[in-house]
Amino acid sequence: MTDSRWAWVEVDLGAIEHNVRALKGLTQPGTLFMAVVKADAYGHGAVRVAERALAAGADRLGVATMDEAIALREAGIGAPIQVLSEPPQAQVDRIIDNGIIPTVTTRAFAGALGRAAASRGTEARYHLKVDTGMNRIGVRAEDAPEFAAMLAEFPGLRLEGTFTHFATADVPGDWDVTRQLQRFREALEGMRTERVDPGIVHAANSPATILVPESHFDMVRCGIALYGLHPARSTYGAVDLAPAMSVKARALLVKRIGMGEGVSYGLTWQATTTTTIATLPLGYADGVHRVLSNQMRVLGRGRFLPQVGRVCMDQFMVEVPRGAELTEGDEVVLVGAQGDERISMDELADTAGTINYEMACAFGMRLKRIYL
After folding, report:
1. 360 lies in a domain?
2. 3-state secondary structure string across the chain
3. Which residues carry out catalysis?
């Protein structure tokens, strides 16, 4: 697979399986597990990750869009799939035809979904999203009981679950998590008072699954942790996760340059002595953010090599300092292990001033994947 281009991503499916089991081990027996595989499984490949996660004990899958859900169905995956935000009304026929579980937050969408299901003589399952303080999507917590009771009168609909999402679950002991949990519990109690069964209750994302056991309810939803990446520094040591993604390339060109010569656009880096420069065939179009220019490092023959000059769209350069060696075709590691050394996704994300989620998604956009 790497013959067409000397740059690729490796995904360790055994790590996915390990992470599912490790995260499920934090929950009580009987707690359902949703593997969140949106954004092409955070760059890891949704179909292969979904298959392995389900084999390891995941019960359901979560995605962001209808196209993501349909792609899983077309790949032959029959497990329950929930779209975690409300799709456009124009998607109701595809939802019903493919057995997708949508999120409902508005009366207009619920009405369209119910009418489409009733016209087929069936019921459409849905999950009600309750906004407890994230202020992104969802029915306000105080309005949820009345809203749920109203939807209970709609033909063609069946409330299968009720959920919310935390804004600060990665901060241990944060007061807002406590406040969101209280609002959610009050909304659930209000629904029951209205004689509406909230169904499968879920709130815990990856950090809450690890740090907030009282938020597990009937199901947990794990995204970033599924891939062996920690959602925050606070979760290190709390669970054993195995990173699934490595990013690798082969040296495309290795050459000597003289003292004072510059490298790449703008010549932002100049050699202070005669040195060796290696060009690698990937750049910011592959997820190596331009902001990493002159800041990051890679591994070559088990040694750390500094990146020099501006990162280009399709290439970037590293210095091979005195005492190190690299030849054309040698494997270089951007993320992952080589010899006794390792570069983590977190290191790269910290250097770029972003989060590991964004880095992983970006690497999955153009680089080919090899599954281990």
Report:
1. no
2. CCCCCCEEEEECHHHHHHHHHHHHCCCCCCCEEEEECHHHHHCCCHHHHHHHHHHCCCCEEEECCHHHHHHHHHCCCCCCEEECCCCCHHHHHHHHHCCCECEECCHHHHHHHHHHHHHCCCCEEEEEEEECCCCCCCEEHHHHHHHHHHHCCCCCEEEEEEECCCCCCCCCCCHHHHHHHHHHHHHHHHHHHCCCCCCEEEEECHHHHHHCHHHCCCEEEECHHHHCCCCCHHHCCCCCCCCCEEEEEECCEEEEECCCCEECHHHCEECCCCEEEEEECCCHHHCCCHHHCCCCEEEECCEEEEEECCCCCCCEEEEECCCCCCCCCCEEEEEEEECCEEECHHHHHHHHCCCHHHHHHHHCCCCEEEEC
3. 38, 265
pLDDT in tens, 226-263: 999 999 999 999 999 999 999 999 999 999 999 999 99
Q: pTM for this structure?
A: 0.94
Q: Which of 185, 202, 235 is the last residue of a domain?
A: 235
| End position of a domain, from candidates 203, 235, 267 | 235
Asked if the structure places residue 288 within a domain, the reply is: yes
Whichever domain contains 225, its CATH number is: 3.20.20.10
Query: Does residue 75 form part of some domain?
Result: yes
pLDDT 10s digits, 276-324: 999 999 999 999 999 999 999 999 999 999 999 999 999 999 999 999 9
Q: Are residue 259 and residue 191 in the same domain, yes or no?
A: no
